[in-house]
């Protein structure tokens, strides 16, 4: 079987180490590219992130993308900007919808909190919201890992997510196949917000929040493998 080039894009408040934790579940038929952009401060928009990531990949590489949360927002930009390179997209706990006005206000508050208090103060209360049930040991491990993420990078990412575009029409019209892997108990992105627009190519994981790679890694890996290898 030919190896598939897989670009793995991490979410907000984490970095490429999420994929080091998850990749053993994927199997060996992939060549993995897992850029880390948690520290980037030179990207004002998600399009900027996408362009910078694309420029870091081997020239003329064709690849499938798995984007977790913020990584999914970047994946949408990659698919829109470089459709000749993007073969398939997996949106893992992510959405094509823009922020609501209420969410934009909350993004501003997050940026202000980060600027005043720093990453370590923010990350501890933030992480439990990503899990469907209390996984205190895993949360503690991740909190300790990510408490030193550069605060300037988190602020830049927060503002870029706040101002992201609406990709509803793009997802419905593009010939690039999309798969949505969603948590039934996700407090950030509800399955209903996606299935209102798309009924097929959706996997809903029971008893899972926003962190399927930790809460149900086998099921996430199976869904990715089945989608990418068709």
From TrEMBL:
SUPFAM superfamilies registered for this protein in UniProt: alpha/beta-Hydrolases
Alphabetically ordered keywords of this record: Hydrolase
One Pfam entry name: Abhydrolase_6
Keyword Hydrolase part of the UniProt annotation: yes
Domain AB hydrolase-1: 6-223
InterPro entries in the cross-refs: AB_hydrolase_1, AB_hydrolase_fold, AB_hydrolase_sf
GO MF annotation terms: hydrolase activity
Gene3D superfamilies named among the record's database cross-references: alpha/beta hydrolase
Entry superkingdom: Bacteria
Protein name: Alpha/beta hydrolase
């Amino acid at each position: 079987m030919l190896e598939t080039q897989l670009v793995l894009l991490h979410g907000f408040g984490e970095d490429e180490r999420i994929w080091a934790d998850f990749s053993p579940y994927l199997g060996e038929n992939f060549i993995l590219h897992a850029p880390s952009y948690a520290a980037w401060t030179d990207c004002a928009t998600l399009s900027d992130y996408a362009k910078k990531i694309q420029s870091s990949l081997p020239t003329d590489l064709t690849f499938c993308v798995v984007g977790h949360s913020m990584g999914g927002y970047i994946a949408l930009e990659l698919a829109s900007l470089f459709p000749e390179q993007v073969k398939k997209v997996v949106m893992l706990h992510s959405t094509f919808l823009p922020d609501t006005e209420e969410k934009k206000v909350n993004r501003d508050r997050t940026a202000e909190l980060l600027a005043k208090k720093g990453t370590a103060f923010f990350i501890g209360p933030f992480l439990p919201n990503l899990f469907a049930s209390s996984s205190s040991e895993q949360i503690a491990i991740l909190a300790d890992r990510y408490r030193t993420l550069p605060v300037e990078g988190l602020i830049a990412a927060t503002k870029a997510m706040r101002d992201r575009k609406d990709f509803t029409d793009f997802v419905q019209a593009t010939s690039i196949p999309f798969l949505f892997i969603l948590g039934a108990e996700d407090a950030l992105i509800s399955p209903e917000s996606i299935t209102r627009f798309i009924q097929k190519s959706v996997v809903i994981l029971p008893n899972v929040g926003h962190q399927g790679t930790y809460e149900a890694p086998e099921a996430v890996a199976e869904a990715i493998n089945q989608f990418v290898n068709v």
